[in-house]
Structures are given as C-alpha cells and as structure tokens.
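Structure tokens please, single chain.
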Amino acid sequence: AQRFREALAELGPTFVKLGQLLSTRPDIMPDSFVQELEKLLDEVPSFAYRQVEEIFREELGRPPDEIFDQFDPMPVASGSIAQVHRATLPDGTIVAVKVQRPGIHAVIHTDLSILMEIALLMERHIPEFNWMNPVGLVRQFSSSINRETDFVSELHAAEQFAANFAGDPQVVIPGVYRKFSTEKILVMDFIEGIKISDVKSIASSKLDLKVLARNGANLILREIFEHQFFHGDPHPGNLFALEGNRIGAIDFGMVGYLDDRTTQLLGRIFSNVIRKEVDAVIQNL
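Here you go.
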C-alpha cells in the first residue's frame, strides 16, 4: 500500500488525484490502501512562488503584491490541481487564493491517455476486474478532472452552493471574488476550521460531536434531495468543523447533478435501508 501511494505521488498530479479519489472508495480498495492513500490529501509538493507570480502576470497583468495588501508566498495547502495561498484584500478581508499548477493541462492529457491504455489492458487480460468497469471509471475520472481545471466553472458552482445554503446557519460556503478570479486563479473567503477527519482536535474543542455529525448529514441530504446539486469531492480536506458546530465546505471543482427520477429512487432506497426492506432495496437499485 505504501509503495502504491509513493508511486502515484511520483507519477504526478493526475495520479495523485486518482489516489485521492480511491481513498474515498473503501468499497473497491482494502483498508490498508485507503489509509495510505488518505496521506495524498495532505502531502502533495507545492510549486515555487516565482511560478505563482508568472501566472498572476499572465492572468491579471500584475503580481500578487500589487493586487493584495498582503500575500503569503508560502501556500497553506497544496493539492493535485492547485495550491492555496492566504492573502488580504485592500479592504482587510482575509481570502484564500487558489492558483492552478503550471502546465497542468498538458500533464493531465498525457496521463489520461496512459490511464486509458492501462484500463483497456485490464479489461482485455484481467477479467477479474471487469466488475469495476475500468474504462468507464477512467472516462468518468477524465471528465471530472478536466472540469476541475476550469476555475470559472468552479466559481459558478461555488456561487450556486452559496445561494442554495444562504438561509442555513449551520453551513458555511465561502464567497468568491469575480474581480480577481480567472480560469487559473480563484479568490474566495478564507475558512478557518478543523479538518472534519481530525476527530481528536474536534473532541478537545468546544464543539459538540453529535450536533456536528447531524449538521454534516443534513448538508449532504439537502444537497441530494432538496437541491439535486451536490459536492462531488467531499473528502476530509474539503470539509471543516467550524465554531458553533457549523460545517464549512470548500473546493467546488467537482460537482454533480441529479435528475428527478434518480433523486426519487435514492429517496426510496434511503427509506428502504432505514426500514430494513432488503427486497425493496434490491428492486430500486
């Protein structure tokens, strides 16, 4: 499991993203692999500040220090697609500045071609993996990761989520700043909280674990059954426990929509599971 995680990290951003997704799939990955792959959520190397400056000049015509009152050259987080810097707007607002990795489009294109070749080989020569539909998984992954590289789409998704939860005091969605955002730069409110998987830190704070769990469940259920528009990448690095037992959600590069029929079936299955109606679960699936 450790060698697999290290191999993905060495292969680069696309494979790191794949590993992050697999870390949320205990249905197809053994526990030992899930635990190793979770490390990819926090251990992605950052890129140099000079490259950040170059991207700002290309996208906005000015370096960060001419746009923000303060801009921390050291990233607070580094992911497979981008890294995030803390900054302060001229009006004193603290923001998170998401900057896309240089040359990521070319890297992703090459890596996806390699992944598709591997998936085709698996389907042809290892029938034991056919139940996983390797080619279908790569196609879906390809669609998702390509959407993630367009920060304008993410900005629109973040605005939609903010509108959907505008009246919910238990959910915090960061506001976005169109004036400073482009396809490769996204500026949003900075959310300070505890990573949702850091249960020890949450337990030692003044937060109520039961209330927090209920608020988190309500967030997911409202996305699916009320809005039919959901966060497609809810790994622990994208969800935070905030003061007042609120849930903070970030990173809307990967989102999904549900049609009425699918939502109705999911509702039935959910009800069937609660009532332990096994035959009805199977029929609705």
